[in-house]
Amino acid sequence: MDAPSVSLNKFVAGTGICSRREADRWIEAGRLAINGTIAVKGNRVVAGDVVTLDGKEIGHRPAPIYLAFHKPAGVTSTTDQKDPDNIIDFINYPQRIFPIGRLDKASTGLILLTNDGDIVNQILRAENDHEKEYIVTVDKPITDSFLRRMSGGLPVLGQRTKQCTVEQLNVRIFRIVLTQGLNRQIRRMCEFLGYRVRTLKRIRIMNIELTGLPVGHYRPLTESEMEQLNARLEGMEPEQ
Q1: For residue 192, what is the enclosing H or E element?
Q2: Where is the RNA-binding S4 domain (predicted)?
């Protein structure tokens, strides 16, 4: 009987150093090896295999870290430290972490960071199901037609956006709750209707809220937040 195996990207993500998507990029770049042989996509790992990144053996999983961060405008949600505005250098956390998903450089608000590659994969796979809430200011008065069309779905990036909740808060300010994660989705939706976004702030991801967290600061997720988050992700089937 063959020894139990796991896909290489899942193994790497399981050590907590990156997400599976990032592991796939490392495989494509030739940075990962199994027992001294450069890995290729589709490789699997069995007990006793030695996996290395840039020649250094990947260690055991560290204690999990889960942070909520209030991102300022101008910070890029990337781990690429060649980018002078990258989120990792800005936070300067003492242990290796990475963002879950993205938030545009010009946008502000809640973004989650972790060293747990498994939860990153779960949340990103659930991206078309979990709620993300934003407060948006546009460049001209909001109309009933704008609210109706935004909530009903618009053509973006070759597909139609899902129906969503949109509520006017002021003459030029609205609240929107999305269950999608298309690239620059809100900005593209507004542009389709002839509006330009002036400010965009994410205030909630699933059950985790930005409330009370100052700009540029981070905090660990509470035990209650983690319990609720895990409960929401529990029904998802893990990849093999």
Answers
A1: helix 185-192
A2: 6-68
C-alpha separations of 160 from 152, 155, 188, 202 in Å: 10, 4, 12, 22
231: exposed, middle or buried (C-beta count within 10 Å: 0-12, 13-18, 19+)?
Answer: exposed
- Measured CA to CA, the distance from residue 112 to residue 229 in angstroms comes to 12
Q: pLDDT band for position 136 (50/70/90)?
A: very high
Q: Is a pLDDT exceeding 60 seen at residue 1? A: no
Distance CA 181, CA 107 (A): 14
Mean pLDDT value of segment 123-149? 89
Q: What are the φ and ψ backbone dihedral angles of 35, each rounded to 5 degrees?
A: 55, 40
Does 129 qualify as catalytic in the annotation?
no
pLDDT for res 19: 81
The single residue of 49, 80, 104, 116 carrying the catalytic annotation is 104
The type of residue at 141 is P
- List the domains of the chain with CATH numbers: 5-57 (3.10.290.10), 66-127+208-233 (3.30.70.580), 132-205 (3.30.70.1560)
